[in-house]
Design brief:
Elements lengths: L1 E12 L2 E13 L4 E5 L6 H8 L7 E6 L2 E2 L5 H11 E5 L10 H5 L1 H5 L4 H14 L15 H13 L5 E5 L7 H17 L4 E4 L3 H4 L4 E6 L2 E7 L5 H14 L9
Helix pairs in contact: 6-7
Length: 252
């Protein structure tokens, strides 16, 4: 589904250049659940932003279902994001003036989808994520966990190819975080949603099937969960984070 090909990203001027990404390459297969980890400044958010077309690469290419993301004309970017990419952010990014139903269906409405089709898709997706009973409410009337479920529903309701999650549990307490991670696992398992999540939290990362570790803008290591339990995988993640150097508490 996703091919990241030898990408580089530079910031700054001629005399003061920072290399945020250094020849990063990897692939994501359809239906995978992958986490990107690394210490602050490792390049993980920059990488996600480049994949999301929020930022542009300095060199290399990114392909989604064979189409070059990096070379899309500026005029096509907004539509590409709405139709092909789903986003889940730690602060939900729901609009308080819209109901949960309207928030979930926003991308479909912007694409001028028939109103009845929008309603049917929203109800179907909300039902799968257990929030069908709050569709008429506004974001300020529901819990943080319900808001995050609504954000997940919005991210996949239009049939987007890839779900991108940037620290999705960052604004949630431990119980809501666990619920969200279980929801994402359900989406991956039952709805075959492909997920690419950036997190600094080893517990959150242990829900994924594969983890990519970045250090100084380069891929440092990769872990596959395989048949191991989530608890076993969690402790293996901690071992890799320790090898990254520095205080583990800075990166988990």
């Amino acid at each position: 589904m996703l091919q990241v090909q030898n990408i580089e990203k530079y910031y700054g001027s001629k005399n003061n250049v920072t290399k945020a990404l250094d020849r990063v390459s990897f692939t994501v297969e359809d239906g995978e659940f992958i986490t990107i980890m690394g210490a602050s400044g490792s390049g993980k958010t920059t990488l996600l932003n480049c994949i999301a077309t929020i930022d542009t690469v300095s060199a290399g290419d990114i392909l989604l279902n064979g189409e070059s993301v990096a070379k899309l004309p500026a005029g096509e970017l907004a539509r590409f994001r709405r139709e092909r990419l789903g986003f889940v952010f730690q602060d939900f990014n729901l609009l308080d003036t819209l109901t949960i139903e309207e928030n979930i269906g926003l991308a479909l409405s912007l694409n001028h989808t028939d109103a009845n089709t929008v309603q049917d898709r929203v109800k179907e997706t909300a039902g799968k994520l257990g929030i069908a009973d709050i569709l008429a409410k506004f974001p300020y009337q529901v819990s943080g966990g319900q808001k995050q479920r609504a954000a997940c529903a919005r991210a996949i309701v239009a049939g987007q190819s890839l779900l991108l999650a940037d620290e999705p549990t960052g604004a949630l307490d431990s119980r809501a975080s666990k619920n969200l991670l279980e929801i994402m696992t359900q989406m991956n398992r039952d709805m075959h949603t492909t997920i690419l999540m950036v997190t600094h939290d080893a517990y959150s990362a242990s829900y994924a099937k594969r983890i990519l570790f970045l250090k100084d803008g380069r891929l440092f290591n990769e872990l596959l969960r395989g048949g191991r339990s989530r608890s076993e995988f969690y402790h293996e993640i901690l071992d890799v984070l320790a090898a990254l150097g520095g205080d583990i508490s800075d990166v988990i």
